[in-house]
Amino acid sequence: MNYNSYRRKTNTVAVGKISIGGTNPIAIQSMLNTDSHDAAACLKQALELQKVGCDIIRLAIPDLSCAKTIAVLKDGGVTVPLVADIHFDYRIALEAVAAGVDKIRINPGNIGAEDRVRAVVRACREKHVPIRIGVNSGSVEKHILQKFGGVCPQALAESALYHAKILEQCDFDQIVLSAKASDVRTTILTNEILAQHCSYPLHLGVTEAGTAHSGMLKSAAGIGALLTHGIGDTIRVSLTADPKQEVLEAQMLLRALECSTRPQINLVSCPTCGRTQIPLIEMVGEFERRMDDCCIAHPIRVAMMGCVVNGPGEAREADIGIAGGKDEALLFCRGEPLYKVPAARAVDALIDEINRRFGTSRADKHD
């Protein structure tokens, strides 16, 4: 089912060359973890993120001198939108906007008096730079904590909407909201509340999620639950790991939910049982390693099943796949059998058929 058929209706916000919200594809974000004073290191990492398919890159701008890094990234070949993460000093926001950043992430309440907020809004409006309001469990205002007795979904949501109100009072509506917690349930409930009370695009993530393994599980549970209900316009899988891993995990998450418009393969395979008479585990591993050999024009579902019980009947909804027999595999396409091949040749045959039936040129794939 197409994500837009059950997706929450939101405003559309332009971030550099892409748009988020509305019916636009879900954008994958990550954040540089290099020293923002080291422009060369930031450029290297940003280009790596761009290469693996990151849609939006955020970087911390802790002081005025770091704003020059934005221009270095732009001049160095980074074409994806850049987001400046700013706290406390409104002058840093002004400098980042002047340097050409595509979006800023702030809490309007922590950059000073109303005249300073208005100065930031004025600069953003002139350069068509949207603002993401990012709140988390450590940033909720004291009066909101007192109202709700501590951090809870209602408090996080009210904090985000409180900051949005500040911008709205400045006649600014190019707003993206994010409200994150380090536990999954709070993240889900908070964003459900926001989805009910505003039409701004929502950026999803579980903050401080953890290591590559535990963090991915938390992110899959939190982000996945929200996307399944049509909530979410951009995502970040926050990991204590290489930022490239965040992008790759986010891509896998969108594939698993079939929310991605990228030409990617959603691989489904059975867990095997006593009926399996081919080395399916090894075959699935080989296919996964060779998926880049499949130059497809649009997302497809590929099934690799151990026996005829699971495929092609049970895997009828797959675009293409194999079902194991005794030392052989049956290739099928949308539930209809094609032909049999020896198990040793099954992966080669599957890749050939994918490229023949769903393929595009390799040059197109890497444009």
List the helices and strands and how they pair.
Elements: E1 12-15, E2 18-21, E3 27-31, H1 39-52, E4 56-60, H2 68-75, E5 82-85, H3 90-98, E6 103-106, H4 114-127, E7 131-136, H5 142-148, H6 153-168, E8 175-180, H7 184-197, E9 203-204, H8 212-228, E10 234-235, H9 243-257, E11 265-269, H10 280-289, E12 300-305, E13 320-324, E14 328-333, E15 336-342, H11 346-358, H12 362-365
Question: Your description of this structure?
Answer:
The protein folds into two domains: 3-257, Dihydropteroate synthase-like (TIM Barrel, Alpha-Beta Barrel), CATH 3.20.20; 265-365, Sulfite Reductase Hemoprotein, domain 1 (2-Layer Sandwich), CATH 3.30.413. Helix 8 (212-228) packs parallel to helix 9 (243-257). The strands form three sheets. The protein has an eight-stranded parallel beta sheet with strand order 8-7-6-5-4-3-10-9. It has a five-stranded mixed beta sheet with strand order 11-12-13-14-15. The protein has helices at 39-52, 68-75, 90-98, 114-127, 142-148, 153-168, 184-197, 212-228, 243-257, 280-289, 346-358, 362-365; strands spanning 12-15, 18-21, 27-31, 56-60, 82-85, 103-106, 131-136, 175-180, 203-204, 234-235, 265-269, 300-305, 320-324, 328-333, 336-342. The relative contact order is 0.09. 38% of the residues lie in helices and 19% in strands. By secondary structure, it is of the alpha/beta class. The protein is built from twelve helices and 15 strands. Strand 6 (103-106), helix 4 (114-127) and strand 7 (131-136) form a beta-alpha-beta unit.
